[in-house]
Amino acid sequence: MRRIVKVKKALSGNLIVSALVAAGTVALLVSNSLASNSSDARRKAERSLYNAMLYPAVYSAEKIEVADLPEYVRDRVRVYKQRCAGFSSRLPELDPSRDAFIPNAVLAKKKGIEKVIFSLINKEGIEDIAAGYAKDAKLYYEWEGFSEGPLAEATYAEEFLNGNPETPIRPYLIIFILHRYKHAVFAVEYEKDLVLNCGGKPKKYPWTKETYERALKKYEYYLNMAKEEQDLLVGWFAGYIDKIDNAGDLY
Questions:
Q1: What does the buried/exposed string (b/e) look like for 19-54 if buried means 16 or more CB atoms within 10 Å of the residue's CB?
Q2: DSSP state, residue 67
Q3: pTM, rounded to two decimals
Q4: Spatial distance between the Cα atoms of 142 and 106, rounded to a whole number of angstroms
Q5: φ, ψ at 91 (rounded to 5°)
Q6: How far is the C-alpha of 239 from the C-alpha of 241, rounded, in Å?
Q7: What percent of the chain is predicted at pLDDT more than 90?
Q8: Cα diameter, the chain
Q9: 3-state secondary structure of 201
Q10: Averaged pLDDT, 223-241
C-alpha cells in the first residue's frame, strides 16, 4: 500500500514538473513571438520613414507607424509627418502630354526634394528656398545601376553646400549627398565586376580604383557629418543607411 502511495506521489510530482516545464516553454515561445513581432514592426516603420525621406513621390509619410520607431526619434517624426501633410509645391505642374514622360519623371523627383526639405526644416521662408533649390538640382531620370548618376547628383549638391555653408537646407543636403555616395560605392563595384568578370567594355563602364576610393571616402565623410547634426532625424538616417549592405536595399 505504501509503495502504491509513493508511486502516486512520484507520478503526481512528475506531472507537476512537466506542467511547469510546459508552462515555461509556452511563456518563452510567447515572449519570443512578441519580441519578433516588435522587431518586425520596427523594421517596417523604419523602412517606411527611410522611403518617405528619399522617395516621397512614391512613399507617403502618412503610413509611418510612429509608435513602432525608436523612442528617441518619435516626437521628431511626428513633426515631420505634420509638415508633410501641410506641404504644397511651388514648382510647375506636370505636363500631361505623352512626350513629356522623362521630364515629368524628373520634375516629380524635384517636387519630392522640395517636399522633404519643407518637411525636414521648419524655418521662415523655407518654402521658397526648397522650391528654388529643387528647381535647379541636377537629377537623372534613372541611373541604370551605374555610378555616373549618383556621382553627378552628389557633386551638384556638394558644390551647392560648399558654396553656401550657412544654408538652412544643410541637414537635407547632408542626407542627400550621403545617400548618393552610398549608391555610388555599390555602383562602382558593379561596374568593376562587369569589366573584370563579365566582359564589359571599360569605355562603357569606366570604373577605377580611384573612383571607388573617392566615393567611399566621401560617404564616410558625410556619414560622420550626419551623425554630428543636432537634428535627431538626420542622425537616425545616418545610422539606418550605414547598416544597409547591398545596393537593392538602398531603393
A1: eeeeeeeeeeeeeeeeeeeeeeeeeebbebbbbbbb
A2: G
A3: 0.83
A4: 9
A5: -85, 165
A6: 6
A7: 69
A8: 98
A9: coil
A10: 98
Q: Which three cell numbers stand for residue 58?
A: 512614391
User: How do residues 132-164 score in pLDDT, each as one tens digit?
Assistant: 999 999 999 999 889 999 999 999 999 999 999
Find, among 98, 95, 117, the residue nearest to 106 by Cα. Answer: 95
Quick check: 113 and 134 in contact, CB under 8 A? Answer: yes
7: pLDDT confidence band, cut at 50, 70 and 90?
A: very low
CA pair distance 146, 215, nearest whole angstrom: 13
Give dist(CA 38, CA 5) in Å, integer.
Answer: 49
State the Cα–Cα distance between residues 74 and 66, nearest whole angstrom.
6
Burial of 80 (0-12, 13-18, 19+ CB in 10 A): buried
pLDDT of residue 158: 98
How far apart (Å, rounded) are the C-alpha atoms in residues 21 and 18? 5
Q: Are 154 and 177 in contact (CB under 8 A)?
A: yes
**Contact between 131 and 91 (Cβ < 8 Å):** yes
84: helix, strand or coil: helix
Q: Answer yes or no: are the C-beta atoms of 175 and 234 closer than 8 Å.
A: yes
Q: Is the pLDDT of residue 8 over 80?
A: no
Q: What is the mean pLDDT of the chain?
A: 87
Nearest residue to 117 (alpha-carbon basis) of 89, 158, 155: 89
Higher pLDDT, 197 or 200: 197
